[in-house]
Amino acid sequence: MEIKRVMMRKILLSILLGMNFLGATGQQFPLYNQHFVNGNLHNPANFGQNDYTQIFGMFRQQWTGIQNAPQTQFLTVDGPINDRVGVGMILINDSENILSRTTFMGTFSYSVPLSEDHGIAFGISLGVLQNRIDFDKVNSQQQVFDNSLFSGRENNSSAEASAGIRYKFKGLRAGFGAHDLFASRFDYENNDGTESLAFELVRQYIASASYRFDVLPKISIEPKVLIRATQGLPSQLEANAIFTYDNNIWAGATYRETENWAFSLGTFVYDKITIGYSYEMNTGSFGDNSGESHEFVVGYRFGKKEKVQEPVVVQPPVSTQPDYSDYAKLQQEKIDQLTQQVDRLENEMKKDEAIIQYEQQKIEELQKIIAAQRMETLQLIQRTSVDPEKEDFENSSSAYYVVVGSFDELTNAKNYQKLLIRTHELQTSIIQNNDDTHYLVYTLSSNNKETLLDAVEFVKKLNSSIIQGTPWIYKHD
Fold it and tell me: How far apart are CA 250 and CA 174, in angstroms?
C-alpha cells in the first residue's frame, strides 16, 4: 500500500509539473489571443468603457495533438451605467488534464476623464471560484492503484478577485491587471482520510501597452506588447500587431517567447456582430508533438448608452439684498474692451498719419520737379503739340495721345501716375517722345478727333494744380 501511495504522489506531481511546463508559466490563467477585440478577460478596468452594451463568448482548444490539453470557454457581458460607471460579469470555464475550474465574477469600473480623449479607469471583479480535480483520470491512465487512494471528482470553492487600471491618451492604451488576488488554497483527502493533497493558486499579473496609428483614411495599425507574470515564475513576453480596415475587418499576428505564433482574422457584421478566429502553432521542438491551437470568438452589441443628465440642485438664496458684484464685474469687462478698442484705433490713426505725411512729402517733391521743368515742358508742348483744326487724324498713319505730363526720368513719370490715381482716380499710361528725351504721361490714344478733344476737355475740368499746364494732343510718328 505504501508503495502505491508513493507512486500516486509521484504521478500527480509529474502531471502537475507537466501542465506547468506545457503552459510555460503554469497555465493557471487561461491564454487568449484575441484580447484586442475584447480585453475584459485581462483587465477589469476595460468593462463598460464603450458607449454600448456588449456580450462576448470565446472557445479555445489548445494543442490538439496532446490528450487532455487545455480547453477554455468564457462569456463576458458589460456596459455603461453613465459616462463614468461601467458594470459587467464574466464566466470562465478552464480545464487542463485532471484540473478544471469555473469562475464567476461581477465587475465594477469607474473612469476619470482628464481631458478630451484622455483619461484613466479603475476596475475590480469579485466572485467565486470552483476548483476541481478528477482523480478518475489518473486511475484510468495509471492502472496501479486501488480505490482507497484518491478517486472520483473532488470540488472546492473559494472567493476570487481581480483588479485593474487602464490609461488612454489619443491612440495610446496601457493597462495592468492582477488576478487570483486571494491566492486560494484547496485541500483534498483520499477516500479513507489517510492521505491529503494541497493545491494552491498564485497571483498572476498582465500588463499591456498599445498605440493605434491611422496610416491611411481607412487603414490603421496597432502594435501591442503584453507581459504575463506569475508569482514565483519567469514572466512571458508577447508581441502583437493588429491591422484594421474601415473599422470592420481586422487581421492580427502574435508572437510569444515560447516560440508560439498566432494569426487572427475577424470582422464586424452590420456594426453589431463580431466574429473572430485565431490559429496558433509552435515552431520549436515542442510543436512537433503538440499540434496546433484554435480559438473562436463571437460578440454582439446592444445599441448605445444614453446621456445621463445630472440632477440640478437649486440652492436657496442666502440674502434678500441684490448682489451687484457680478454686474460691476461685467461692466468693468466692457470698459476694458472699449479701452482696448480706443487704443487700437489710436494706433491705427498714428499709422495713417504717418502714411499721409509720407505721401504729402512725395507730392511736394513731385511738385518741385514739375515746377523746375515747367519751362521745359512748355517748350515741349509748343514743339510737339498739334492743331486739332488743321490735323487730318483719321487719314494719318501716326498715333495721337492726350498728354497731361512730361518728365525726363521714368521714376518721376511713374510717381506722377500714382499721384493722379490718388488725387483724381485718373488712369494713365507712359510713352517716350519721338526723340526719346522725355517720358510722356497720357490719358488715352486715338485717331478720332472728337474723342481726343473730349479727353482734353475732361482733364481741363479737373482744374488740378498738378496738371502740367494745359493738356495737349501729341503726335507720335
Answer: 20
Indicate the residue among 302, 325, 344 that finishes a domain. 302
Would you say 398 and 386 are in contact if contact means Cβ atoms under 8 Å apart? no
Residues 241 and 369 in one domain: no
With a pLDDT cut of 90, the percent of the chain lying above it is: 43
Whether 144 maps to a domain, the answer reads: yes
Which of the four pLDDT bands, split at 50, 70 and 90, describes residue 13? very low
Neighbours of 60 (CB within 10 A): 22
Q: What are the pLDDT digits (tens) for 70-105?
A: 999 999 999 999 999 999 999 999 998 888 999 999
Q: Residue 178 belongs to what domain range? A: 2-302
Span 401-422, mean pLDDT?
88
pLDDT value for 317:
54
Question: Do 132 and 99 touch, CB atoms closer than 8 A?
Answer: yes
Residue 300 in grid coordinates: 454582439
DSSP bridge partners of 298: 57, 275
Do both 144 and 282 map to the same domain? yes
Is there a single domain that holds both residue 373 and residue 281?
A: no
Same structural domain, 298 and 405? no
CA–CA dist 197, 210 (Å, integer): 42
Give me the residue label for grid cell 499721409. Answer: 356
In CATH, what number is assigned to the domain containing residue 363? 3.30.70.1070
Q: Which residue has the higher pLDDT, 461 or 304?
A: 461
Residue 297 shares a structural domain with residue 377: no
How many domains would you assign to the chain? 2
Overall residue count recorded for the chain in this entry:
477
pLDDT digits (tens, 9 = 90+) for 364-394: 777 777 777 777 777 788 788 888 888 888 8
* 218 located within any domain: yes
Neighbouring-strand partners of residue 57: 75, 298
Predicted local distance difference test score (pLDDT) of residue 157: 92
Nearest to 401 by CA among 434, 438, 433, 446: 446
| Crossing angle between the packed helical segments 325-372 and 374-384, to the nearest 10 degrees | 60
Q: Classify the C-alpha dihedral 201-202-203-208 as positive or negative.
A: negative
Written as one string, the DSSP assignment of 53-83 is EEEEEEEEE--TTSTT--EEEEEEEEEESSS
State the distance between the two ends of the chain, measured CA to CA, in whole angstroms: 139
- pTM of the predicted protein model: 0.58
Residues 188, 150 contacting (CB under 8 angstroms):
yes
Copy the grid coordinates of residue 428: 494713365
